[in-house]
UniProtKB/TrEMBL annotation:
SUPFAM superfamilies recorded: C-terminal domain of ProRS, Class II aaRS ABD-related, Class II aaRS and biotin synthetases
EC number annotated for this UniProt entry: 6.1.1.15
Broad class of enzyme this protein falls into: ligase
Name by which UniProt lists this protein: proline--tRNA ligase
Superkingdom in the source lineage: Eukaryota
Catalyzed chemical reaction(s): tRNA(Pro) + L-proline + ATP = L-prolyl-tRNA(Pro) + AMP + diphosphate
Listed InterPro entries: aa-tRNA-synt_IIb, aa-tRNA-synth_II, aa-tRNA-synth_II/BPL/LPL, Anticodon-bd, Anticodon-bd_dom_sf, Pro-tRNA-ligase_IIa, Pro-tRNA-ligase_IIa_arc-type, Pro-tRNA_ligase_II_C
Keywords from the UniProt entry: Aminoacyl-tRNA synthetase, ATP-binding, Ligase, Nucleotide-binding, Protein biosynthesis
Transcription regulation recorded as keyword: no
Keyword Nucleotide-binding: yes
One family name in Pfam for this protein: tRNA-synt_2b
Amino acid sequence: MATANASTHSKNARMKEVKKKTRLGMTFKKDASFGEWYSEVVVKSELIEYYDISGCYNLRPQTMAIWETMWEFFDAEIKKMKIKNAYFPMFITEDVLQKEKDHVEGFAPEVAWVTKSGQNDLEVPIAIRPTSETVMYPYFAKWIRCHQDLPLKLNQWCSVVRWEFSHPTPFIRCREFLWQEGHTAFATKEEADNEVLEILELYRRIYEEYLAIPVVKGRKSEFEKFAGGLYTTSVEAFIPNTGRGIQGATSHCLGQNFAKMFEIDFDDEKGEKALVWQNSWAYSIRTIGVMVMVHGDDKGLVIPPKVAAVQIIIIPVPYNDADMEAIFAACSSAVQTLQAAGFRAEHDFGKKNPGAKYNNWEMKGVPLRIEIGQDEIDGNQVRIVRRDNGSKVNVPTENMVEHVRDSLSNIHESLFTAAKVKRDACKKVVYTWEEFMTALNEKKLILAPWCDEEEVEKDVRTRTKGELGAAKTLCTPFDQPSLPEGTLCFASGKPAKMWTYWGRSY
Ligand code: 87F
C-alpha cells in the first residue's frame, strides 16, 4: 500500500512538473542532450501528449494534420496504381496467427493478446494484429480463383500493436502505431518486382518531397530482410545527432512463400494451377519522428511547408498610438488573401504579447510568420520572417502572395539541402576493419565493400556489441559506386560483392 501511495504521489508530482514545464519554452539543447530535447519538443510543439501506458501516445491535431497530408498524397498515388482500400479486423485467432510459423516465430514476444471479456476468460485468447498477413491471406486464397482475379491489390490504413520491450520513443518506437499496409498478389514475379520499386519510389517522395529528408533507396541484407519474404527494399534515413540510421519504410517482395502456406493459387491461362506472387509494403507514423529529429532546433519544431498544418501565422504588433483596428483588419485581410491563394494561413489575435507569440509559433514549427504593426500599415507592407533561418524581410502587401509562395518553396529546398549536407558530412567510406571501427566510434554512416555473407554480418554484430548497440547493415544502395576488381570485404577479407551501408540504427 505504502508503495502504491508513494508511486501515486510521485506520479502526481511528475505530472505537475510536466505541466509547469510545458508552459515555458524549450529547455534542452538539441546538440547537448538530444534524447531530452526530443522528448521535450514533441510535447511542447503539441504533436503528442504522453499517455499512462508506456509506449502509447495521444496524437494531437498537429500530428494528424501532417499524417493526413502524407496520407492524401500516398492514397491518391496508389489509387492511380489501381490499388484499393479495404479494412480487415484487428483480432486474430491463435491458429491463424501460427499458420506461417517462420514469420511469426521471432516476433511472438511482441504479440499482445486479449484474454478476457468483463470478468470472464475468453474461450480462446485472441491476438491483436501486429501486421495483417495472417488476417488477409486466407481471404486472398478464397477470392483468387483464376487469372482474371489477378492482380489483387489492397491497402489498409490502420493501427497495429507490437508490445515492444526496448525503450519506447514517440513516433519512432511505439506499442501502437498508425501505418498503411499494402498487400498485393500477381500472376507473375515480374509484375510483383515492378510494384516493389514503384511503391519504394512513393516512399522516397514522401521523405524527400514532403518531409524534406534525404533517403537512400536500397535492398536489405538476407539477415535484415523480412524473414517471411523473398527480398526487402527500403528507404533509409540518417539522424546525425545520434549517428544512427533509421529505416524509413519498407517494400517487400514476398515471393511465393505465403502463397504456399495459405494456398493462394489460381488457374493460369493454360488452365494449370499456379501460385501467386505477393508483395507487402508499409510506412508509418515514424516518418514524423524522423522529421522532428532531422529538422528540429533549439527553438523547437521545424515543419517543412508542404506538411505544415499552419504554413503562415500572422501576428498583429500593437504599440502605443497604433491604429489597432487597422492592424487587425490588415491581419484578417492577409489571412483571407493567403487562404484564397491556397495557403494554410491563420492569425493569432490572442492576448499574449507579440514576443511570446513569436516564441510559441516558432516552437510549433510554423514555416513563416508575418508581422503587421503600424509601420507595416503606414508603408503598405508586411514583415515576413522565416522559421528555418530567422531571416526577415519587408514586402509590399501587393507582393505578399508571390513572396510567400517563393519563400515556402525556398524553405523546403533549404531544409532538404541542409539535411543532405549534414548527412553527407557523416558519410564515411571505409576499406578495412580498423577504418570501420574508427568510423563507427565517430557515429558515421559507413559505406563499406562487403562480401554479402550472412555469417560475416552476424560476426560484425558480435564484434561491435556494446552499450550503444551493435553495428548492422542498413541497406545495399541501388545506386552503387564502382567496385574495382580485387576490392576486399572490410570485415572478412574475402572478395567484396558490393557497397553496403552500415551503422548503428533505430
Ligand atoms: C511483430 C509481431 C508479429 C514485424 C511483427 O513490413 C509479426 C510481426 O510480421 C511481423 N513485426 N513483422 C514484419 C512485418 C512485415 C510486413 N507486414 C506488412 C511489412 C509491411 C507491411
